[in-house]
Design brief:
With 388 residues, the chain is an alpha/beta fold. The protein folds into 2 domains: 119 residues, Rossmann fold; 247 residues, P-loop containing nucleotide triphosphate hydrolases (Rossmann fold). It contains 16 helices and 13 strands. Strands 8-9-7-10-6-11-12-13 form an 8-stranded mixed beta sheet, with helices on both faces. A 5-stranded parallel beta sheet has the order 2-1-3-4-5, sandwiched between helices. Helix 6 crosses helix 16 and helix 10 packs parallel to helix 11. The two termini are 38 Å apart.
């Protein structure tokens, strides 16, 4: 059966010319003359390759590519952007939006055919969906977790929240460490296969397919799926691989019902880029004066990214019992943001859970800590339901 190529372009001459060239090579061609129609055809026809123009009136090619990557029915289809734009920044924007390859108009037929053949050869054909879905229907509800500074338990919160969300999930739950070189979850959860994130960030964007990302996930004995960062300090240099981060994010959102992203501390460029695409953001604060001050600045920075305040939740996490810790009311007063959940100190529980290589909420399912994380998971599922 011939491979099917969908051409999305508002220029009818381009549609006819390119379509004819590819038909002569034995491909089955379908066409759409605007972005909205292109998205509908991509979902209903499930082509093997999409040839996508950038400059279109109703929805440009960058937006179309992003929507294609956000839907599990179309996330794995290779995209070849075809445009008159030739500047480097335009190409980078295309790759960040989800394109696998890029051609500049006008192009010679043999060049077009070579790129098409190369993309089809290295892509893994995705099975057709059992039913058509809307552009965002299968996208994971994505939760970003971060703190103003290190050592506040971002990874601990992420993995225990992910484990708690499994109770409510009909699909998979993924917890992904996003900062290379400082990963902790792998060893805490009893696996030494720590190469997932580094493997993805070290490759080219057109190699970051849905199947590629799925193959790097580790399935924990609790059925939680993990994308793990290495603990090799020199890997931190990969933190600037923004196109790879964007592509990874898009692929991960097509693989689960809930996606919990461990952004670590601070607000590096990749965090700024991805946080605005999350459905909800959790910021951790500790009951210490400087922690509260730093967190207030971080929260203000996050709002500067045009993230709505309703998408933010603050979790107060006190790691140790101490008389110098501020009360919840004092933290609330100084922070100026509501606190969704307060996690009481449970150092012995977390230490023992790590020894057993399990999330604390799974290790002691009836503990106060488990109840507090269950409350946080309930809040997240309510936000997910409101989004639907």
């Amino acid at each position: 059966m011939p491979e099917k190529i969908l051409i999305i372009d508002d220029d009818m001459d381009t549609l006819r010319l390119v379509g004819l060239m590819l038909q002569r090579q034995g491909y089955q061609i379908t066409a759409a003359n605007n972005g909205t129609q292109g998205l509908e055809k991509a979902i209903s026809d499930h082509p093997d390759l999409i040839l996508l123009d950038v400059m279109m009136p109703d929805m440009d090619g960058y937006e179309v590519a992003q929507k294609l990557r956000q839907n599990s029915a179309t996330a794995g289809i290779p995209i070849l952007m075809f445009t008159a734009k030739s500047q480097l920044d335009d190409k980078v924007t295309g790759f960040e939006a989800g394109a696998d390859d890029y051609l500049t108009k006008p192009t010679h037929p043999s060049e077009l055919q070579a790129h098409v053949k190369a993309l089809l050869a290295r892509s893994v054909k995705s099975p057709a969906p059992t039913k058509a879905t809307g552009p965002l229907s299968d996208r994971a509800f994505t939760i970003g977790v971060l703190s103003a500074r290190g050592g506040l338990g971002v990874s601990t919160l992420a993995v225990n929240l992910g484990s708690s969300l499994q109770k409510y999930a009909e699909g998979d739950v993924i917890v992904a460490e996003m900062t290379p070189g400082i990963g902790t979850l792998g060893r805490d959860m009893g696996t030494f296969d720590l190469g997932g994130l580094v493997e993805i960030l070290s490759t080219t964007t057109n190699e970051i397919t849905r199947d590629k990302v799925e193959s790097t996930l580790i399935t924990h004995e609790t059925n939680l799926k993990l994308l793990l960062a290495s603990d090799k300090p020199s890997d931190i240099q990969l933190i600037d691989a923004l196109p790879q981060y964007e592509m990874l994010f898009n692929r991960l959102t097509s693989l689960a019902q809930f996606l919990v992203l461990d952004f670590g501390a601070g607000l590096p460029r990749f965090s700024e880029t991805l946080l605005s695409q999350c459905d909800h953001v959790i910021v951790i604060v500790e009951g210490l004066t400087n922690s509260v001050k730093h967190t207030r600045v971080l929260l203000d920075n996050i709002l500067d990214l045009e993230i709505d305040k309703s998408q933010l939740s603050v979790v107060m996490s006190n790691r140790v019992r101490s008389e110098v810790l501020l009360s919840r009311d004092r933290v609330l007063e100084n922070l100026g943001y509501p606190i969704a959940v307060s996690l009481t100190p449970a150092p012995e529980l977390f230490t023992q859970a790590i020894r057993m290589h399990k999330p604390a909420v799974f290790y002691q399912k009836e503990s106060l800590t488990a109840q507090q994380f269950a409350k946080l998971a309930t809040i997240m599922t309510e936000h997910e339901a409101a989004k639907k």
